Amino acid sequence: FSVLNQSDIVAAASSVTGIFTILLSAIAGISLLVGGIGIMNMMLTTVTERTREIGLRKAIGAKKKDISIQFLTESVMLTFFGGLFGFIFGWAIAWGVTKFTGIPTQVSLFSVILAFSVSAVIGIVFGYYPARRAASLNPIDALRYE
User: Fold this and answer.
1) If DSSP states are collapsed to H, E and C, what string results for 94-126?
2) Distance CA 97, CA 105 (A)
3) What is the 3-state secondary structure of 20-31?
4) Looking at the whole model, is its pTM more than 0.85?
5) For residue range 86-135, what is the model confidence (pLDDT) as tens digits?
């Protein structure tokens, strides 16, 4: 015969919850990496498309810092709006779960701040290389670029 008590059941449930947390964290990390690579690709394409504009700005006196800040700002705003749409989508799902299943859900302020912070960090990290590449363009070569 076997005896089960509440602490054994709680330990098993805690173990399963820990495994799901690790699994979901891994999936979220991979998603952030893929999204960041997509942001970097988009920003590199933007740098290529706007090479003449960058050359013109540098020719009239823009510093490397100005060009870098412009592209980093664009990257952060792109990820910010992605985070905003993600927040709206998550809030709608939480509302739908509460409405249709009766299970009370709540979106905490901490999770919203954390989501937007991670979004901004992803924009900065993956937008740094394209911004640096744009800032290091030679203005003469950039103005000749076709």
Assistant:
1) HHHHHHHHCCCCCCCHHHHHHHHHHHHHHHHHH
2) 7
3) HHHHHHHHHHHH
4) no
5) 899 999 999 999 999 888 888 889 988 998 899 899 999 999 999 999 99
Per the CB < 8 A criterion, the answer to whether 130 and 43 are in contact is yes
The torsion region of residue 102 among left (phi > 0), alpha (psi -120 to 50) and beta comes to left
Tokens for 132, please give them. Answer: 């640096």
Judge whether 112 and 87 are in contact, CB under 8 Å: yes
The number of beta carbons lying within 10 Å of the beta carbon of residue 22 is 10
Q: Write out pLDDT tens, residues 31-69.
A: 989 999 999 999 999 999 999 999 999 999 999 999 999
Which runs of consecutive H residues, i.e. helices, occur in 50-108? 51-59, 64-101
